[in-house]
Write the structure tokens for this entry.
Amino acid sequence: MPSFTLPVFPLHCAAHAFDIALMQALVDAGVDVNAVDDEGRTPLMQLADATHYLSKPVSMAVQAAQWLLERGAEVNAVSQLGKSALAGGCTRRCAISCWHTVAG
């Protein structure tokens, strides 16, 4: 399980849980879908990492990723470690079904 440093970023946590309803509430409240955490990671990057840790259906990851992308999430944004959501997703177990759908 990933560990979070403070401050914890709510949209990143919602993306990690594939919680579209919470993501919607946060975006409606003014949170930027491309907000970066203290490591330069976006919610979409957090979602890509979550596909490895959570045992939820891949379809939930796809829906949450599509939701973020439809609202302007940058698939090619790069973190301070030089990783993108797309590259991160490609190392995870749902890479083929999830990221083919998202990037395709």
